[in-house]
Design a protein that fits this description.
Keywords: ATP-binding, Kinase, Nucleotide-binding, Transferase, Two-component regulatory system. By secondary structure, this protein is an alpha+beta fold. 48% of the residues lie in helices and 17% in strands. The protein is globular, with a radius of gyration of 19 Å.
C-alpha cells in the first residue's frame, strides 16, 4: 500500500500539470476576447481567474519539486550578489503586499555580498518565507526581510508582526498554518539544505515570528564573472515568480489582466 502511494505522487503531478497547461492556454486565449467584447467591468472576474491559475501553478510546482529525488535536485550555481538579489526582491514585493494592506520593508547591513549559489532557487526560498510571513501578518500588519553577515555566513531574516506561535508548537503545525498546505516551507528548507544552509523558526521578542536562514558564503575566485539571476521567470512557463509565490496571500486586484500580461 505504501509503495502504491509513493508511485501515485509523480502521476498526480503529471495529471495536474496537464490540466494546468490546458487551463493556462484557455485563459490566455479567453482574456483578450472578454476584454474586447465584454468591457472592463469583467476585469475583476478575469483577475480572479488569473489568480486561481497562479495558485495552481505554485501548488503543482511545489509538489513536483518535493517529488524530485535527491540526485535530480541540481543547482544552477554561479557568482551572485546576494544583497542585490534581496534588494530587488524587496522592491518587487513591497507594492504587491501594499495591495493587501500589509507593509513590507527590506533592511541590509551590507550593500554587496558576493557568493556562489542558484539565484532563482534562492529567490524561491525567500518568496516562500515571505508568503508565510505576509499571511501571518494579516491586513494592517507588517513583515520584512533583513540581510546581515555573521562571519562566513549570510543571515537572512524574514519576519512578521502577526500573532506568532506558542512555545513548544509542533513544527508540523507551524508548517501548516491556516490556509496553507505547508509545501512552500518544505521547498524552502530543501533549497536551503542544497546550499549547505538551514532555516530556523523563532518567536520574536515583541509580537510575531521570524524565519532565520543561514547560508555559508563562498566568495568568487579572482576574475570570476558575476551572474544576475533571471528575475520574474518561473519554470512553469514564463510567469512572474513573485506573483506565483505570493498568489495565495495577495488580493485578486494584483492579478488584473494588464498587470500579469
Amino acid at each position: 500500500m505504501d509503495e502504491k502511494r509513493e508511485d501515485l505522487g509523480p502521476l498526480l503531478v503529471e495529471q495536474f500539470r496537464q490540466q494546468m497547461n490546458n487551463l493556462s492556454a484557455a485563459i490566455q486565449l479567453l482574456t483578450p476576447v472578454v476584454r474586447e467584447k465584454a468591457g472592463p467591468q469583467y476585469d475583476p472576474y478575469l483577475a480572479i481567474l488569473h489568480q486561481s491559475l497562479y495558485r495552481l501553478i505554485r501548488m503543482v510546482g511545489n509538489l513536483e519539486y518535493l517529488e524530485l529525488p535527491e540526485g535530480e535536485l541540481a543547482l544552477r550555481e554561479g557568482t551572485l550578489d546576494l544583497a542585490g538579489l534581496c534588494r530587488e526582491l524587496g522592491e518587487q514585493v513591497s507594492p504587491l503586499t501594499a495591495l493587501a494592506g500589509i507593509r513590507f520593508s527590506y533592511e541590509e547591513e551590507i550593500g554587496s555580498l558576493l557568493t556562489h549559489g542558484d539565484g532563482a532557487q534562492l529567490r524561491r526560498l525567500l518568496l516562500n518565507l515571505i508568503a508565510n510571513a505576509v499571511r501571518a501578518a494579516g491586513e494592517g500588519g507588517e513583515s520584512g526581510l533583513r540581510l546581515a553577515r555573521r562571519g562566513g555566513r549570510a543571515v537572512l531574516t524574514v519576519w512578521d508582526n502577526g500573532p506568532g506561535f506558542l512555545p513548544g508548537t509542533d513544527e508540523r503545525e507551524l508548517l501548516q498554518r491556516p490556509g496553507s498546505l505547508g509545501l512552500g516551507l518544505k521547498v524552502a528548507r530543501r533549497i536551503a539544505a542544497l546550499h549547505g544552509g538551514s532555516i530556523v523558526f523563532e518567536q520574536r521578542e515583541e509580537r510575531g515570528s521570524r524565519a532565520i536562514v543561514s547560508l555559508p558564503l563562498r566568495p568568487p575566485e579572482p576574475g570570476e564573472l558575476l551572474k544576475t539571476p533571471r528575475m520574474g521567470f518561473d519554470g512553469s512557463g514564463g510567469f512572474s515568480d513573485t506573483l506565483i509565490e505570493l498568489a495565495g496571500v495577495l488580493p485578486y486586484r494584483a492579478f488584473f489582466p494588464e498587470d500579469v500580461e
